[in-house]
Amino acid sequence: MFRVLGPLEVLIDSRPIRLGGIKQRATLGFLLLKANQVVPTSQLLSALWPDKDPPASARKVLQNAVWSLRAALSVTKGTDMLRLSTQAPGYILQVDPAYVDLFRFHQLAERGRDEKAQPDRAAAILREALATWRGTALSDLVENGISWPELAAVENARLDTQQDWFDAELACGRHQSVLGELKAMVEAHPLRERACGQLMLALYRCGRHADALAVYSGLRTSLVEDLGLEPGPALQKLQHAILTHDPSLTLDPATVPAPARDVAVVRPPRPMPPIPAPRGPSDPRRAHLTLAMVRVRTCADATDPVRVDYELAAATRMVRSGIEELGGTVATSIGSATLAVFGRPPTRGGDEERAVRAALTLRDCFADGMGRGLVMQVAVATGETLVLTEPNSRLTVSGALVDRCHQMLSAVPEGTVWVCPRTRELIGDGFDALPAAEGAWEIRGVGGHDPERDSDLALIHGLLERALRRNSPHLVTVLGDSDDLLDRLTGLVNGPRVLDGRTVPDDPLSAAAELVTELCAVAPEDTPEVVRGRLRTTLGAGGPAESVVSALLPLLRPEHSAQPGTLAAWQLLLEQAARAQPLVVLLRDLHLAGDDLLDAVEELADLNAPLPLLVVAAARSALLKRRPSWGGGKPHAACITLDPPQSGTINRLRHLMASASIGGRCDGELPDQWRRPAPLTPPWDLGRPEPRLAALDVPPLTHGIRLTTPDSADTLCRAVFDDVADDELALASTVRLDGPCPPPR
């Protein structure tokens, strides 16, 4: 069964099959919309890249998508339901219309219209047609930016069918039962005259004559002001009939189908989910939370209140952006103070440490005033407080804990982080702390750790929180020497299961094999039958076919030859594990992995299924040389480069927060004094030699290696830009140039 009236699904024996990444799914979706027609390649390319010119590799991407679809749909072989073949000038998807919900919808809609002489029967058939919809057509593709004219045509067909159903229901005298759906349609599509007329008629028959005329008045105002048009003759005639109480608007009881005697009249099910009524705020409940209150002040001239207001508004946006990037939730902002919550219920532990790390990162970001004369203070408090969650609103916290945090903030010196005694007790000795006034503690930094690495760790942990909160897969790429960082991340994770694998030279699938071994608790001495049993247990009862288990065996037993579907089975295994328990997957030295494994890892970030999954891909910079577009364009992908202290994560977060201020725009132009031009030729800083040498896998400067020193600093910089040999770059890594860098040739 092929289902396009909602998220794209292919069901075999009532179970969905994997369809791959966004390009692959979009190819299948477009071919299904034009099923049994030859679709030119140029039209498919325009559909896959709707807002820009297709790249040079577009045809190859399309060919790979078609090839992958054929492999994914191969389970349908032996039936006559589908065939995807090449036919000039493109491709054709031949499918039995009985297996596509879109064709079934059109068929039922036509049957319902043919029965309009019998409104009760027509209403039943049209209701069945509308019940085939599960949401917006191809909603998973629409969420990823797909917008095709064909989808608009399908949506219009649904609206037309719904209006036919309204006509049939009104003819049966069920005007009260459809009144809610009619109002919803008119609100969503206010210029559909037919729907407005149906709503007017339903309101009139419900005795709401004034409301019926108000619908006409609202439509006429919109048409005249927006388009310069008057309502059509049919609607004008209906308005006149309502004004004169024309008897033709009243149903003749003899024409209304009567229910069978002695049978209870049951209200028919609605063809579309009803719009939920607004709910009141839920009851407040107490929860253990960590709060961070951040105040940013400006050194702007207080005699210019307009400039002060603009600068504070932009600074508040910057703080809000930084808090959300570091894993916190902004509860409220009042003036220049922002209240952030760490551990939004349900909490996962470690919230106080996460809040303190975020506070230190923000402190370092504002250490020099962001170049705009800004100073900040942060107060962190932990304890029980009242939590109120309102529909479509931010989390609201109140109580003594908020007051305590605010009182502490008033005493915090500028550029300092203070925490309450309870927070100090919970974070232990992992931070350098000094006693402050009134029992508070000043946090100087993270004890025994590089503050830059702490900021990187806070970013990754914040992305983990986002993956858990949004219940969606995320991919984080960490470039550089990351073993220590990942080891510390493993110690901080509380709740999700952590799987750790490393790629070794000459074995491009070793990382994937380690993950399966750890996940399934496979021992080296286990027999193949025992291994199969452990794989079946991990996949779960009623899990995938035995072919998936067979495809995974090459990862665990070298005597089994690899299969084309091995990595697809590996992905499925991770999906099943993440459904059972939130999952963090660490893949070390991924730059040594094969292309097939790299493709599989990238596809994990494209999964549309709700999965609490964070994939951390640790690699050297060689990964980007192999895959320049790695992770690019994906909505849930990020890349972190581990740089020397005070030059990496802090600067990236500063840039992100500065971007959040929208260049100083806040409902108007920011005064020119805010903007400071960037230097035209920033200093060239090659950083410390040790991380650079390790990241480039360059041997240390020892005897037996002869290096040629460039004649001047200018020549050295030009050589670095031109990607010189590794030995020259090793020497360049030991030099720091504080002058302007020459432009590349």
From TrEMBL:
Coiled coil: none annotated. Residues 1-95 form the OmpR/PhoB-type domain. The keyword Transcription regulation applies. SMART domains: BTAD (SM01043), Trans_reg_C (SM00862). InterPro entries: AfsR-DnrI-RedD_regulator, BTAD, Nucleotide_cyclase, OmpR/PhoB-type_DNA-bd, Sig_transdc_resp-reg_C-effctor, TPR-like_helical_dom_sf, WH-like_DNA-bd_sf. The keyword Transcription applies. Residues 268-281 have a biased composition (Pro residues). Keywords: DNA-binding, Transcription, Transcription regulation. Residues 265-285 are annotated as: Disordered. Residues 1-95 bind DNA. It comes from the Bacteria. CDD domains: BTAD. SUPFAM superfamilies: C-terminal effector domain of the bipartite response regulators (SSF46894), Nucleotide cyclase (SSF55073), TPR-like (SSF48452). Belongs to the AfsR/DnrI/RedD regulatory family. This is OmpR/PhoB-type domain-containing protein. It comes from Micromonospora gifhornensis.
